[in-house]
Amino acid sequence: MNNTLRSTSTHAVLDAMASDEYLELDATEMARRVRDEGLAPGALLGAALERCTYVNDKVNAVVMDHSEHAIERMLAYAEAGTSRQGALAGVPMLLKDLNTYLAGTRTTNGSRLLAQAPLAEHSSTVTQRYEQAGMLIFGKTASPEFGLTTTTESAQWGPTRNPWNLAYSAGGSSGGAAAAVAAGIVPAAHATDGGGSIRIPASYCGVFGLKPTRYRTPQGPSSYEGWFGASCGHVVSRSVRDSALLLDISHGHEPGSPYWLAPMQGSFVEQMNRAPERLRIGLVSRGMTGVALDPDVQRVLDETVALLCNLGHEVELVDLPIDAGQVFSAHGAVTSTTLLTAVKDREAAMGCSMDEAHLEPISRFLLANARNTTAETLFRARRAFESIGEQMELMLSRYDLLVSPVTASLTPKLELLSLQNRYEDYTREIVGSVAYTVLANVSGQPSMSVPSGLGRERLPIGMMFTAGRCREGLLLSLARQLEQSRPWAHLRAPL
Fold first, then answer.
1. In this structure, are strands 314-317 and 280-283 parallel, antiparallel, or unpaired?
2. Residue 460: helix, strand or coil by DSSP?
3. What is the 3-state secondary structure (H, E, C) of 406-436?
4. Which end of the chain is less packed: N or C, by CB atoms within 10 Å?
């Protein structure tokens, strides 16, 4: 990303606030100061760009520069007299470079195949809602190729490094977003989760990440679900209240979509602020891939259970009522055929066939498998989504929440989970990172990663909480309680 501001006039409108002050503010407080204290949006945007200039060469989180777009929006708000209006007026924002569009800019999905894709003719609905709330979108964050792995390393953008230890992965596929938040570039960043892609990088980078209920947030226009609804968009953030506020401004049915949830009663911020009553929580310690928990993950899980009990909640060991093979088989069939469709669409647009230089080795392997997928296989995968979701809803009628690790293993070093590896090496390494998260994507329940401790190399470890459909408010309420009981915002990556 070119972090150099491109004109003298740009400098005139970006009188950046002090870096130390900027790093102390979450998005909610930034917007309050703009609205109530007259803080100039240019001071926030300038500070975000300065922070990006300082740290991005180290972490490689922000891979596209849209600062001129953000400045134009800021000046347009000022001219219209609306620069202090909107729930998040003046707050700097980043979009993930994966199936999310900003008019006039390119989205590559982390792939060389789309490196020269046409500029977007329109913005995604979620992008529009962020800007309607007054946010200033100044760039896009890295994603692995088509979001297909749990690290953020690609031939298109290179590796995104964990701000806590630059030799380690930031997670994936929203690793660019999580690294940007952990590095202090923005207090919250757009992210998506199709198999753990919000929760895994949130855990690895020590930030908060909530995957909403299926269809809670918009995916359109034009395409209204990702991976048969397994993929959902939201954010990673430093604070729980930012996640709640951003969900308030972004959720809800969009015109043209055949999918929607019942209208909300009240707001997510209001629900977050209600202390949870005594909860019955199921403890899931055994992952779906059979990988033993790393001792540091086990220690943080035990500490989290003890904290939950001290807060008055009841925790009981449970087994998941699902066939893990069915979960991964259904998820794999959907993701690989979606990749096949994307590749065919791009080939048609280019007027030629893809060659090996366009896709990474693991992507090519998945693509070859997808070409043999039958209509029956895909139909059965969709039906498995429904039956697994039903089983999980029945279980969550007996428990308020489930708690588990986010991953069975600790944050991996870079290169281990890259799509440029041999398939055998890749599958051997990835089983520790996908042992828990994929289930909520297949079943459709909301699920979150809460910063919960540190492991070896002082790398963060998150714990995962999953609730019944449409119970994001309960998750946010518990997350707020945990945030107050065991604060994490003061823990900063050593950049």
1. parallel
2. strand
3. CCCCCCCECCCCCCCCCHHHHHHHHCCCCCC
4. C
Which tokens in the block code for residue 34? 């703009």
Q: What is d(CA 328, CA 172) in angstroms, rounded to the nearest whole number?
A: 18
- Rounded to an integer, what is the distance from CA 430 to the centroid of its chain? 18
User: Domains in the chain, please, with CATH?
Assistant: 13-485 (3.90.1300.10)
CA distances from 174 to 202, 205, 293, 339, 448 (A): 8, 11, 23, 18, 14
> Burial level of 165, CB count in 10 A (0-12/13-18/19+)?
middle
| Average predicted confidence (pLDDT) for the chain | 95
DSSP summary character for residue 231: B
Nearest to 437 by CA among 211, 247, 148: 211
H or E, element range at 208: strand 208-211
Residue 226: the pLDDT is 95
**pLDDT at position 12 over 70:** no
The whole-angstrom separation of Cα 426 and Cα 187 is 32
User: Could you tell me the two tokens for 317?
Assistant: 């060991």
Whose structure tokens read 């989970």?
417
Q: Which residue has the tokens 């259904």?
A: 330
Other CB atoms within 10 Å distance of the CB of residue 420: 14
Dig out the tokens for 220 from the structure: 């359109």
Alpha helices, DSSP H, located in 151-286: 175-182, 199-205, 240-250, 268-272
Prediction pTM value: 0.97
| Tens digit of each residue's pLDDT (9 = 90 or more) over 74-114 | 999 999 999 999 999 999 999 999 999 999 999 999 999 99
Helix axes 423-430, 361-370, angle to 10 degrees: 90
Place of tokens 């709330």: 133
DSSP letter (8 states) at residue 358: T
| Distance (Å, whole) CA 176 – CA 95 | 10
- The residue written with tokens 């809460």 in the block is 450
Contact assessment for residue 330 and residue 385, using Cβ atoms and an 8 Å cutoff: yes
